[in-house]
Structure formats: structure tokens, C-alpha cells
Amino acid sequence: MTIRSQARPFAAGAVLSAQLILFTDAAMVVAPDVAAATVDPPAFSPKAGTYPGSQSVKISDATSGATLYYTTNGSTPTAASAKYSAAIKVSSTQTLKAIAITAGGAKSAVASATYTIETPAVAPTFLPKAGAYDAPQSVSMSDATSGATIHYTTDGTTPTAESPQYTAAVKVAKTETLKAIALATGHTDSGVTTATYSIEPRTATPVFAPRAGSYSTSQSVSITDSTAGATIYYTTNGVAPTTASSKYSGAIKVDTTEILKAIAVDSGQIKSAVASASYVVEPATATPTFLPEGGVYEAAQTVSISDATAGATIYYTTDGTGPTTSSPRYEGPIEVSATEKLNAFAVATGHTRSPTFGRTYIIATESVLHRFGAVSSDGQFPEAALVEGRDGNLYGTSTRGGTNSADPTSGYGTVFKITPDGVETVLHSFSYGDSGSTDGALPEGALVQGIDGNFYGTTAFGGKYGYGTVFKITPAGAETVLYSFTNSPPDGYAPQAGLIQGTDGNFYGTASFGGDYGGGTVFRITPAGAETVLYSFTGGAGSSGKPDGLYPVASLIEGSDHNFYGTTAYGGISSSPGPGTVFKITPSGTETMLHAFNGTPDGSTPGAALIIGQDGNLYGATEFGGTNNFGTIFKITPTGDETVLFSFEHNVDGTSHRQGPNGVLEGSDGNFYGTTAAGGEHGGGTIFKVTPAGTETLLYSFYANANDGAYPEAPLLLGSDGNFYGTTYLGGSDDKGVVFKLTNPIAPK
After folding, report:
1. Residues 6+ apart with CB under 8 A from 375
2. Mean pLDDT across the stretch 674-684?
3. If 0-12 CB within 10 Å is exposed, 13-18 middle and 19+ buried, where does residue 329 land?
4. What CA–CA distances, in Å, run from 316 to 304, 308, 329, 332, 645?
5. pTM reported for the whole predicted model
6. Are 506 and 482 in contact, with CB atoms under 8 Å apart?
7. Is 259 exposed, middle or buried (0-12, 13-18, 19+ CB in 10 A)?
8. What is the number of alpha carbons within 13 Å of residue 58 lying toward its C-beta?
9. 284: which strand partners?
10. Rounded distance between C-alpha atoms, residue 622 and residue 266, angstroms
11. CB 420 within 8 A of CB 721
């Protein structure tokens, strides 16, 4: 302490006195007149200084009985100032001053104390938080104090103002401890925030087998982990497991509904995520049963559904879709009057849901639309498939019959139209044999409607030279012979199959015989009648000597590659004449034999056109061959890999000893449908279905009597109304064939 003497002015006669000013490091005390300096100056606690938060300041004095007066605004206190009675709260920077005054009026020196209050900056925060991670982390730092700067270290040392200043996220690629402080004007330094990041691979999550789900019996649950050497801990009560939980050592038997949870732990790796699997162990509800069983019926059926589990509720659908609890609830028998697939499942309290079970009911109602031969001008003995015109009517040919004939008992065939409800009109009677006629005779192939709306077809005989024709006929019946076959090489003759119109607008077909080698031809003909032979079959007898087909009797089909595909009834690589082939031919006439049939167990004598399935493969039928030598349905890829899907059996599945299937079509359900010329329950032929997996179903057996058809020799037509249409060669009241319809043959998917 330094003591300085200060002279004080005085008047005449006054008592000379001196005043002392005392200086200390903490406060300045102005002493009163020396003569009156008997009162100690007040003291402050805590002392004046800088503090990080509010302070509760007490004032005391050593002079007994002295009263303390103080100010908080820096002014000099007097006896009129606030009297001290309790600690003073200082929450911001302030200067306190105080004096002590005795009862006799003696005053102490004024004591002064300045308190500087500064709050610390908020400690920084880290994102993501400290912890164990299985991949490098990008750590962001932030601070809630406005204007604060963050300084940090990554080696675990305490940061200072000289440490690196945070400006961007810190990449943590290995195990590290980050520490950070925040500095801000008007604030003291924040506390240190510490975060340790462990970067280690994570142990794989355990896997349960069987999977979680509902089961009807106890399950033996195995837990495995793909991390080699990992230890698995588990619980069976749904609680998250720890390393204090049960250690997995073998399969866990689950008898009741339980939730298993598991973790995997491996040295040097982060423990795995928690795997959870809930097992509901309840007996399954019995599978529903249907009565009558699904199958093919000629009349509507009343179907009952039942379940063996007491109290079970049954839900069902009739459109082939999978039922849910939102589907109709079974309350009583279901009337099935059209082809439908019924699906059902059952549920019962305390049981799991039954499997969904289905049955297909094919209500294949056959009706005869027209019986040929009732009048002399009508057609007779139809051999070809029908075609549906753009007007919704059906069009076809009959091999015999008609008004123009040198032989009125048989005729040379007709072109006819028939409405869906059975009204038939003969559009044209072929007149070959009549004096001077160059018309065709005996049409055996189906018609095709051209892009011009007219119909085009072939006759096996007749024409200018007697070897067959290509003709055009309008929907009104005006017929024109476009071409007469000559049987003069390289031309073919006797076309037994119909035409197709290519994407180039020309027509393509086959002649069963003739050509350069007598084995038949593939030809192209323009709508105006200009014919070109594209290929002559050799039957292996050509100059090249390469194996080849012989006698094509079926129409072609154009693939998406714009090549044409077809069959020959004979030829191939086996001994003469060979059991037939499948071939490909380009529009320019380059032919490739894709497959040569071998007879039993392979097919033999493919007499019908191929179809292209939804899967891009070719499908067809052979009249003979197969396991039982009664014909087959086969599949062949565009590159020639052939598979027999189904082999027919004599008088069991719809064929006879004499003849097999007449080709197939693919339904909207992906199954294949066709006819056989004989066999079945009544011996008059059948309509059948074969699945892509080779399962056959007999849909209808012709009765071969006056009321029904007999011996169909043509493939079916799937009408735009979803029904099948076709012809039989015989049957009907005059035994000269019929046109028939099979209603609702295809079940929904």
C-alpha cells in the first residue's frame, strides 16, 4: 500500500488536519480526517474481479456496531444510500461502493469493488455423435454462441486458441478422439467437448432359419452369422440381447409364439445390429374341399365348399384370383354356369390360415350351329378350319357339295359364311368340270382374309390345268381364279393348305406335290396372281443330297424375324419316305430343316400348321408317333430343339388307331387346344386341352350321331367372343358334317 499526504486548504483559526488517500490493488479507500479515522473501511466478499457468472457479494466491516451503506452504480455512498442488510446479487458488470458509519456519525473511508461478469461460450457439439462406426465418418462441429470460433484437436490433447480453427467437416477414417472449445468476444472460453470415434468393421447381422412367420408345428430355429468366429447371443422374450444374454450353441426349439432376438460379437469389430424374428406357432386351418370336384362338365354345376376345422370361415373367388379376407365369405353353394376357376382358403381362431386351394370347372357346352347337306346346294364334308371375318361372321370351305357339279351327289366344294348364331349362306359353288370352266375344285385349306377385305384360298384340283388353283372371293361371293397350277417344273400342284398373307402384302403357301423334284413346293403369289416358286422339296433326292422334307400339306406361319416356318408330312433323315420335318424358309427362298421327326417316341407325320406361342417357341401336332404311336403335341425352338409335350393314347385320351390331333391353338390362359379326328368316349373325335407342362384334359367327345358332329379334321378357331368354333367332316342329320361351337372353354387364369 502506498500512502500519500495531500495538503488541504484551511481557514484562519481552523484546526490543522491531514487527509490520507490509501491505494490498494483491489480498491481505493479515501480516508476521512485523520482526527476522525476511527472506523474501518468495509470489505467485499468475493473480492472485485472478473467472474464467469453471477456473484452473491457480501459486505462486512470490522467496526463493531457500524452501519453499512452502499451503491451499485459507482456513485459515492452516504447515509442516505441503501443500507446493507443481505448479500447483493451481481449478474452483470458493476462497481459496488460502501461506507461504514457509526452511531456517533464517524465515517469510514469509501470502499469500492468492480465486478466484471463474463459468461462462457457454449461448448461445441459434434455430429454424428461419438461412438463405434463400421465406416469412416465426416464429423461436423457447431456452436450455439453467436460469432464463436471453434478450435479443435484430433490427437486427444486439450485445444487452445492456437489449435486448428474449424472450417469444414473433419474426416475420421480411423479410431480418434476429437476435442474442441469455442471462443467468443464477451465470453470466456467454453468447456472442452470430447468425442471418441471408433472406426471398426461391423460384425454381420445374425440370420434365423427357418424365417420368422406362422407355423402349424414346433420349429427348430438355427442362428448363423457370416462373420467367421463370431459369437452369437440371443433372447427369446423379445428383449434386446447383450453379451450377458444366452450364448448360442445349438438350434432353439420354439413351441409357442415367441420373438427371438440375436446379436453377433467378434473381436476387433463392432457388434452386429440386432436381428429379430417372430414365430407364431399355431396349427393350420384345414384346406377347403370342393364338391363336386373340378373338371369338365356339359351343364352348370352347384359347388359346395367345406372345411374340416371346426368354426372355420371360408373366403373364395370365382375369377381365378387369390382370395383375401376382403373376398366374399362362403355362405352357401355357388352356382357355376360358365367356365370358372374357384379359389378358397379358410381361417379359424387359434389356427393359421389354410393354404389357398383351387378347382377349375370347365362348363364346355357344345352346340351345332349348322348341319351340312340339308339342301342339295349346300356344302358337304368340311375339312378346313374356320376364319372369323372382320364383320364378326365365320367363313369356311367345304370339300364337296355346291350347285355346280357334273356329279350332283358330291359336287366340287363351296365357300360359305355362317353367322355366330348359325345362319349359313353359300357364297360360291366351285364349277370345275362344267363345260368350259377353269374354276377350282375340292378346297381343303382354310381361307385367309386379306388386308383388302377379300378372302383368299386354294383348291387342291381344278383350274385351267386341273392341278389346283389360288382364288379370291369377296365377302359378297364374287370369285376370281388368280392362278392355276401347271405341274410343270418348277411349279407345284395340289395345294392342300390355305394361304397366309405376309407382312410384305404377298401371299405364301405350299403345294403338296410337284416342283423340281416332285416333293412339293413353297410359293409366293401377289394379290394380282403372279406366282413364284421359292423352294422345291427334295426329300433327300436333290443334287446336294442333303436331308430334306417331302410333301408339305400344311400352311405356313410367318415369324417375328419375317421368315416362314412350316412342316412336311414326310421326309427328313430317316428311311424313305421319312416321318416328316419342321423347316424354316426365308422370303428369298433359302430353306433350313430345323427338325427331322424320328417316329416313336418322337412324333411322325405332321399334317397341320405350326403356331408361334406367347413364349416365342413353335408348337404343333403330329398325326402319328409318340410313345403310343397315336400322335403328339410338340414344342420346337426357333433354332430346332424339339420336345414332345404329350403323346396320345388310343381311345383313352381322344385318338383312334387311324389318326391323331389336327393341330393346336394357344388360348389366353397359355394352354393349347385342339381336336382329334376320332376316339373319345363315343368314338367320334374330341376337343382337348394340353398345358405347357404336358397335362392333357378331354373337354368334349363328339357323339357321332344325327344331333352332333363326327370326326373333326381341322384345328379350332378361338372367336373374339371367347368361344371355340370348328367343323367336323361327318355327323349331323345328313352325315355330311357340321359347324359347331364350344362355349366358355377357357378358365380364367
Report:
1. none
2. 88
3. exposed
4. 11, 16, 7, 11, 33
5. 0.62
6. no
7. middle
8. 4
9. 352
10. 66
11. yes
Peptide bond preceding 124: is omega within 30 degrees of 0, i.e. cis? no
* Short-list 172, 134, 169, 132, CA closest to 156: 172
Residue 607, strand partner residues? none
DSSP letter, residue 650:
B
> What are the tens digits of pLDDT across the range 175-189?
899 999 999 988 889
Q: Extract the C-alpha cell encoding 149.
A: 470460433
* Other beta carbons less than 10 A from residue 665's beta carbon: 16
Is 12 exposed, middle or buried, given 0-12, 13-18 or 19+ CB atoms closer than 10 A? exposed
Q: Are 537 and 548 in contact (CB under 8 A)?
A: yes
Cell triple for 321 = 384370383
Tell me: pLDDT of 233 over 90: yes
User: What tens digit of pLDDT does each residue of 312-358 get?
Assistant: 999 999 998 999 999 999 999 999 988 899 999 999 998 889 999 99
Q: Which residues contact 225 (CB under 8 A, 6 or more apart)?
A: 203, 204, 205, 206, 207, 232, 264, 272
User: DSSP letter at 433?
Assistant: T
The answer to whether the bond into 355 is cis (omega within 30° of 0) is no
Residues 6+ apart with CB under 8 A from 86: none
Contacts of 174 (CB under 8 A, 6+ apart): 199
The one-letter amino acid code at 84 reads Y
Q: Take residue 713 and report the three cell numbers written for it.
A: 379334321
- β-strand partners of 249: none
Q: Which residue has the cell 433323315?
A: 573
Nearest Cα to Cα of residue 520 among 536, 541, 531, 542: 536
pLDDT for residue 593 is more than 80: yes
**Length of the chain in residues, anyone?**
749
Residue with cell 363328339: 702
Closest listed residue to residue 299, CA positions, set 371, 369, 367, 368: 367
Q: Where does residue 85 fall: left (phi above 0), alpha (psi -120 to 50 degrees), or beta otherwise?
A: alpha
Rounded Cα distance between 707 and 732, Å, is 5
Q: Which helix or strand (DSSP H or E) is residue 347 part of?
A: strand 340-347
R_g of the chain computed on alpha carbons: 53
Number of Cβ atoms within 10 Å of the Cβ of 333: 12
Which DSSP helix (H) or strand (E) runs through 54? none
pLDDT tens string 509-525: 999 999 999 999 999 99
Is the per-residue pLDDT at 260 higher than 50? yes
Cell (9 digits) for 604: 411322325
Q: Residue 543 has what pLDDT?
A: 52
Omega before 606 cis (within 30°)? no
Cell 355362405 sits on residue: 331
- Identify whether 527 is preceded by a cis peptide bond (ω within 30 of 0): no
Please name the residues in contact with 611: beta carbons below 8 A apart, sequence gap of 6 or more.
Answer: 557, 618, 619, 620, 663, 664, 665, 666
CA triplet 233, 238, 243: central angle to 5 degrees?
Answer: 25
pLDDT surpasses 60 at 544: no
**Which amino acid makes up residue 479?**
E
Three cell numbers, residue 633 = 403335341
Q: Is 699 left (phi over 0), alpha (psi -120 to 50) or beta?
A: alpha
Long-range contact set of residues 315-324: C-beta below 8 Å, sequence gap at least 24: 315/344, 315/345, 315/346, 315/347, 316/288, 316/342, 316/343, 316/344, 317/342, 317/343, 317/344, 318/342, 319/748, 320/358, 320/747, 320/748, 320/749, 322/356, 323/356
Mean pLDDT, range 283-302, rounded to an integer: 92
If phi > 0 it is left, if psi is from -120 to 50 it is alpha, else beta; for residue 463 that is: left
The predicted structure's pLDDT at residue 158 = 96
What is the per-residue pLDDT across 351-403, written as a single tens digit (0 to 9) for each? 889 999 999 998 888 999 999 988 888 999 999 999 999 999 999 999 999 98
What are the cell numbers at 142? Answer: 457447431
